[in-house]
Write a structure and sequence with these properties.
The protein is mostly beta strands and 234 residues long. It is built from one helix and 24 strands. It has a single domain, classed as Pectate Lyase C-like (3 Solenoid). This is Right handed beta helix domain-containing protein. InterPro entries: Pectin_lyase_fold/virulence (IPR011050).
Length: 234
């Protein structure tokens, strides 16, 4: 099912409201991110031992004491692309925070900009629920990417803007557009929760393949694509 509404009771707003520094005016509360960021390079966690490479990550990866990535700022070198014949496609390998191994974790109070994907939760992450809270993602081609059915992601109070396709094509097939990025949040059929977020000026605000709870989000100058059953949204 393809849905691209101008208004979906989810506060899809066509406007060009100014961003207020570090504060997102939400209908329930202000979304704030910490002022005390530590500037770091992109994070790549592809094995358990990689967690120890980043001294600013706290916790031990258990459910009771998860790894916590917080209060950091990542400024990349820009969105990367690759060529396939005469097509320019998004290079999915360049992420701000890339995780592809086991360990319970929370990502919160972070700023990420100028990478192909802001936060990339990949297929080798074990089944479970993970949190992304109070994160600002700017000028990436995809903001948050986790389309695997076994990963539940609770995304709240995030501000994602300027996530656009790396090139423009004439095709109307959304499966082809996936190759070009341009998505604010992309989650799979996993029962994820997306709430109290603002997504602005993206080619596609959100693609969701079965998130069960979508509440009180604001979409500005972008639409959404829902491709499966949704049990609870407003």
């Amino acid at each position: 099912m393809f849905i691209n509404y101008n208004f979906l009771e989810n506060h899809i707003i066509n406007s060009t409201q100014d961003r207020k520094s570090s504060i997102i005016n939400n209908t329930q509360e202000d979304i704030r991110v910490s002022n005390g960021y530590q500037l770091v390079d992109p994070i790549n966690i592809s094995s358990w031992s990689d967690w120890a490479l980043y001294p600013f990550i706290t916790g031990n990866g258990t459910d009771l004491n998860p790894f916590i990535i917080e209060n950091i700022e990542i400024n990349g070198v820009g969105i990367k692309t690759m060529q396939s014949g005469n097509r320019t496609l998004l290079d999915y390998t360049y992420g701000g925070i890339f995780i592809n191994t086991n360990g319970s974790f929370i990502i919160r109070n972070c700023k990420i900009s100028l990478t192909s994907i802001g936060i990339y939760l990949s297929i080798s992450i074990p089944s479970g629920a993970y949190q992304i809270v109070n994160v600002e993602i700017t000028d990436c081609s995809i903001g948050i990417y986790s389309r695997w059915p076994h990963i539940i992601v609770n995304i709240s109070n995030c501000y994602i803007h300027n996530c656009n396709w790396v090139s423009i094509t004439a095709t109307i097939d959304m499966r082809d557009h996936i190759d070009y990025g341009g998505i604010g949040i992309w989650v799979g059929p996993s029962g994820s929760v997306i709430e109290d977020c603002r997504i602005e000026n993206c080619s596609i605000g959100m693609m969701a393949g079965g998130a069960e709870d979508i509440h009180n989000n604001e979409f500005i100058n972008c639409g959404i694509v829902l491709s499966a059953y949704f049990s609870n949204y407003d």
